[in-house]
Amino acid sequence: MLLVVAAFVVAFVLLLYMISPLISPKPLKLNGAHVVVTGGSSGIGKAIAVECYRQGAFITLVARDEAKLLQAKKEVEKFAINDKQVVVCTSVDVSSDYHEVESVLKQAQEKLGPVDMLVNCAGTSLSGKFEDVEVDNFRKLMEVNYLGSVYPTRAVITTMKERRMGRIMFVSSQAGQIGLFGYTAYSPSKFALRGLAESLQMEIKPYNIYVTVAYPPDTDTPGLAEENRTKPLETKLISETSGVCQPDQVAKVIVRDAVQGNFNSSVGPDGYMLAAVTCGMSPVTSITEGLQQDAFVQLYDRQRDSLFSCSWPSIKTVFGVAALGAASLTIGAYLAQK
């Protein structure tokens, strides 16, 4: 009987995966699209710019360091697929003055046309025990990681609504899904992006604008190298359990999810499972995603209730249900990475 149920679950998940494109958002075509990437001079931001440029997009790179911007521009331009593509650089601190950010993005749109996709990747990280972190750094991280995404989004949202199309991406972190030792300043600034994204998606979905929140794991970037210099031992031990990803690998997944209009973007099976556990009432963009999240919640509730009852039959049932749930979620995780 259990095998029959298992076969049914697997078949049902596969069926939903096949029909999901029929009701999901229409994918955004990057060929010829104008993509703005904040924090685009290095790390994940630069890798996202490269991935979009590979697909024919026109790129505006935004960051503070003009020298790094010019170097990033040269690197991105190597991946052009036609001679019409353009990479524009603009130096500005996206977290300091909204009106300056608005002016800069207005100029970018005058050069390359309306923004089709905004990638909010500007950010900084700081780790340390709560009482060891300078008080000013709590404010700094909220300004850079949160307001540094609010300002560019506010600057382009009106035009997107007028055109009734667009994508907005917020690059958060796995530390924005769960609070971690040593990230009392960093995690809240990344959690804030999720709250903004969930609220904003409700407002702009009627205008055919879709929000994506990306939760990358530790990624081999200059920012991570700088963070590791002061990271507490406990935080290092936690981080080492998941390994380090490469920026180009992360960028491919994030860009794919943003193009498809997926709300959550996670990297690898571990990231997928973490997103399922912490999804809460986040928006879903397909029946498959919604049912997988619901199945995980039901599985968790069944395990919790049955294990505390301490009866052997119920424990066997728990393991049976867990096997079915794990099978469907594993299939979902595999298909999500295809």
From TrEMBL:
Q: Where in the cell is it found?
A: Endoplasmic reticulum
A molecular-function term among this protein's GO annotations: 3-dehydrosphinganine reductase activity
Q: Which reaction does it catalyse?
A: sphinganine + NADP(+) = 3-oxosphinganine + NADPH + H(+)
- The superkingdom of the source organism is Eukaryota
Name a biological process GO annotation. sphingolipid biosynthetic process
CDD domains in the cross-refs: KDSR-like_SDR_c (cd08939)
Which pathway is recorded for this entry?
Lipid metabolism; sphingolipid metabolism; Sphingolipid metabolism
- InterPro entries according to UniProt: KDSR-like, NAD(P)-bd_dom_sf, SDR_fam
Enzyme class label: oxidoreductase
Its keywords, alphabetically, are:
Endoplasmic reticulum, Lipid metabolism, NADP, Oxidoreductase, Sphingolipid metabolism
Q: Which GO terms describe its cellular component?
A: endoplasmic reticulum membrane
Which Enzyme Commission number(s) are listed?
A: 1.1.1.102
Which family is it part of?
Belongs to the short-chain dehydrogenases/reductases (SDR) family.
What the protein does comes down to:
Catalyzes the reduction of 3'-oxosphinganine (3-ketodihydrosphingosine/KDS) to sphinganine (dihydrosphingosine/DHS), the second step of de novo sphingolipid biosynthesis.
What is the name attached to this protein's record? Answer: 3-dehydrosphinganine reductase
